[in-house]
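Inputs:
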Amino acid sequence: MRIGVLTGGGDCPGLNAVIRGIVRKGVQEYGYEFVGYRDGWRGPLENDTVRLDIPAVRGILPRGGTILGSSRTNPFERADGIHRIRENLADLDVGALVAIGGEDTLGVAARLHDEYGVPVVGVPKTIDNDLSATDYTFGFDTAVNIATEAIDRLHTTAESHMRVLVCEVMGRHAGWIALHSGLAGGANVILIPEQRFDVDQVCAWITSRFRASYAPIVVVAEGAVPRDGEVVLKDESLDSFGHVRLSGVGEWLAKEIEKRTGKEARTTVLGHIQRGGTPSAFDRWLATRFGLHAVTCVHDGDFGVMVALRGTDIVRVPLAEATARLKTVDPALYEEVSVFFG
Amino acid sequence: MRIGVLTGGGDCPGLNAVIRGIVRKGVQEYGYEFVGYRDGWRGPLENDTVRLDIPAVRGILPRGGTILGSSRTNPFERADGIHRIRENLADLDVGALVAIGGEDTLGVAARLHDEYGVPVVGVPKTIDNDLSATDYTFGFDTAVNIATEAIDRLHTTAESHMRVLVCEVMGRHAGWIALHSGLAGGANVILIPEQRFDVDQVCAWITSRFRASYAPIVVVAEGAVPRDGEVVLKDESLDSFGHVRLSGVGEWLAKEIEKRTGKEARTTVLGHIQRGGTPSAFDRWLATRFGLHAVTCVHDGDFGVMVALRGTDIVRVPLAEATARLKTVDPALYEEVSVFFG
Amino acid sequence: MRIGVLTGGGDCPGLNAVIRGIVRKGVQEYGYEFVGYRDGWRGPLENDTVRLDIPAVRGILPRGGTILGSSRTNPFERADGIHRIRENLADLDVGALVAIGGEDTLGVAARLHDEYGVPVVGVPKTIDNDLSATDYTFGFDTAVNIATEAIDRLHTTAESHMRVLVCEVMGRHAGWIALHSGLAGGANVILIPEQRFDVDQVCAWITSRFRASYAPIVVVAEGAVPRDGEVVLKDESLDSFGHVRLSGVGEWLAKEIEKRTGKEARTTVLGHIQRGGTPSAFDRWLATRFGLHAVTCVHDGDFGVMVALRGTDIVRVPLAEATARLKTVDPALYEEVSVFFG
Amino acid sequence: MRIGVLTGGGDCPGLNAVIRGIVRKGVQEYGYEFVGYRDGWRGPLENDTVRLDIPAVRGILPRGGTILGSSRTNPFERADGIHRIRENLADLDVGALVAIGGEDTLGVAARLHDEYGVPVVGVPKTIDNDLSATDYTFGFDTAVNIATEAIDRLHTTAESHMRVLVCEVMGRHAGWIALHSGLAGGANVILIPEQRFDVDQVCAWITSRFRASYAPIVVVAEGAVPRDGEVVLKDESLDSFGHVRLSGVGEWLAKEIEKRTGKEARTTVLGHIQRGGTPSAFDRWLATRFGLHAVTCVHDGDFGVMVALRGTDIVRVPLAEATARLKTVDPALYEEVSVFFG
């Protein structure tokens, strides 16, 4: 039997570990052959493939990114997209697909299976950890470790100059990276998209922090929004780049803090370094196990499902369900962490 | 109300994060006072205390070890041990104890509560991750990351010299560190205490690995034992040190591999570097939350319990139950990982 | 004898190692007493001091920042500045000063010694490594390591998405960090302040890189300027923040690249994480030796000098000379490295 | 023109960076072709080669080890060794050789050039940094960083348990790694091969350290020897392994310390993790520049020389001279560092 594998959406440390796990187990235990599709859904759409066997996956475990390449191509946006994918799968005699990706990639996978009966297994991938069906997604732990190390480094500069340091981390719709790295890094203020923040409250925390004679660190998710959203939208500095969300709120907040507290404030935007490079041990473990279980789903003929982590077990959930709801930070958890604010 | 805090057993990255979480929340939310007991149970036994307030816990989050010191003192081994502890607690008007430690420390805590009604809350600590009541313990993720980085480094030497490299990691009774770091590090053989290993099988994996023209990495838990246990016990090199378990099986195995395969083999014993230094982001997160929840247990008057991780939630379990059963590696999980052997 | 110590200018990993070296050797070998002056020249100006003895320097070796605090206060900008400093030194019976800092701090030190006969010894500090009198300054190696790790991480994202990634590093007047981290990180384009860059040439390198089917990494020093400087100055995004230089050229360049090549380009501005946190082993070694030799200068009564690294030796140079000339990147060296461009 | 490249002796982080530098510059600037010889001198001896062009060196900069493999083969130990090498070079029309290695490899290179007129250029490689002709060798900085990080981690365990921790690092004949990592790691005792140590003096330092209520860290080079050498030679635990030097003195010393001070002592032997894995930024910089300059030597027809670092310049020295004298730690430098002992 021949199986296709593709990776879609933004890159994420652990993608190669998933691919390696799928191929090693598929070949050695089930005698499968594999076809690597290039650049997410563009691969099966244009029948663009790459050799995918055991030599091809040797040594990729510690490497970030994806050897298959990635894209945001959506076959449903093409009139004949689905038709062509099914023809191309048949053309190469591909009997099953393993799709590794986030909401968009798995959304396509779900429809392909549910509406067109394509035998698909999904592997969840979101560095933001915002998929409700799984406790954690790989890449998240790596991003949190990188952000935490960065915050550790900012403390000494903040202290030496008695300055406010704002660290903007990833998280457009969910504040998991900000919450985990902010707590782990000993931040004094953590701002997440789930709860609009009050700049005056932020300044109050900062001032109280300085009173305890220590310089504050503010960790803010790129998707965090102040109470009065207008402020941000009006800000010139925000639409003067290609990627507004990536370098917006942090810079804006630092300026507001300077204006309102009279203290010097500086911003560091971690950006892409959070999603690149070698995966943490946890992410290698999780990603590899996702790969091993995904190929077992294929072997069991269990399609239309996604592998997921529950506690320490890998389970299977329906693809449709998996991508249905965004997993955001529970207010009670944010409240729990807020004991360290100010 | 005044609360005593102590840390017992071997040190572990995250202990200071737990202490900080307890004190920050206890003081700010509940207005508690704290007493730090020195060196585990020796502290309350000899009334040896240290100041423990918010200034005392400032800046300790990223620091390994424990500001309270640790020991393996067991009050039940002293005729009047329990009597003195109760007197000393009364003497300083300490109304509750939070004991942070492993099997031994929590075993004492369980008996103190169940047999003598001392109001104790436990926080689990074992770098080996071998407590059945919790999904993970803090310190484990840090140890696995350190071991994985070490294994990453060994690969290049193994390849350049076509040599077998044996890496001995912690784990006397449970192979969790070996299993996780071995998988994450791309080891070709992983040996754990739960399953006696067959040296000839190990050599077979090694030989097949060399045939694929690549040098093998063997990760072995310090507590792993070969089929014929005698061999190890007979080996001179094993009882010539103070800490046999720490530098035994790895060296022995390397020599056996050289004898049986004719290939050069070298051993690296990671030892204490696995348990020291700054905690990983995950361990800071878990340890801090354990601390926050432990002091909430005190506030709820819920004693004789231990905090534990289930999925992403912190729960409470009876202390007695918590320390009842060792969590070892499930044969099915070892089997799952064995696809990468050889 | 009593000696004053101060740290001025921007913080830099290794400052605490210098302080520790001075105090350990001064107390143990020469029986000196020390006075720590707070926040650079503000300390002696306002007689703001802190205890500085062996317990005070215990455990600070691996810590970034400076336990003495820092500032950019310049006593020559105050009418009675010099007068007050001399009075305050006399007041505390301070017989010599060790000033640790960059051009500004050492410039003041040089004048204090040469014009007013104050017994001063200097220790050079510039994270940009742009002091002509010394082979290297501490902090630089740490910054280069941090930038290199970041660039390593950017490669995988660049490859997975076939995107241009621009990494802006520190270096206002000298491109040492960009040159070293760009070379060590395998960048395809490195832009430094010493040589105005031609955006079309940059785009040509990028295009040729893509032709070799690999995504380019551009490392640009914050102080790099394009041939047509106007372009930058006109750009709105540049003066909309407090710290223009810190987040300007990288963003601007990414937009130009997108315009001219049609390829997606993203920028990461490393900012403060380059100058914070624990020093590299080399910086701890260099900073500690600077401290040991600075206190020996005091013991030798050799004032008005600065310690410096020449090869593997610590030497002494006149303060005046030391701060006279900026050490910029030699065109021949830039040429040597350019073999890796494109 | 066709040029052969080989790497000999123990592996070392930076070997691949040298190879990449040679090939990139040789092909792009001089239009050379390259032949990679496998496993040091075994390659030209048996005409065992591997393709070496620009695609072959892509992506190897951050990788430890050597893509050419290595060995300790010495052609002078074979009757017809030299004869065969010259025939094989002629056979493949190889007009020049670049030999990357330590004393042995470069010793062969020197004789090949001086006695047989083979056009050879040498690149020095010794992780121990013990070559007199160059300020530093690549790999050393990486090893020192790894050892320093390990020592950082040992501190917290030492403190928490008030235990002596002995860390054995590489260095058979020279103590550079022990000296640099010991100083950078804040060790309380540093023992090097250049100066026989007195165990009672070591115990005195340890006891005084404990008196200052802090647990001591002892860093010992694998080649360090006590005053009474017999003691070590007699020790059973020393000749029971394949690699005596690698795990001998540290274990022995810990036992002696326990005997003489009554304090618990533990040993960590870093072993191979010091020489594997990705090179530090400094080593990538140095190794790359060595490669660039080595190929320029070939272009200049300047043979029988070795590239070397002097200050910040790459210079050329005669091969014979280069390997003549071992660079050991100057007693004055050891004395300088000893202020931190005890």
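The interface with chain D takes residues 24-25, 28-29, 58-59, 61-62, 135-136, 141, 144-145, 147-148, 152, 180-181, 183-186, 214, 278, 280-282, 284-285, 288-289, 292, 310-312, 336, 339-340 of chain C (CB under 8 Å). Flag for discussion at group meeting.
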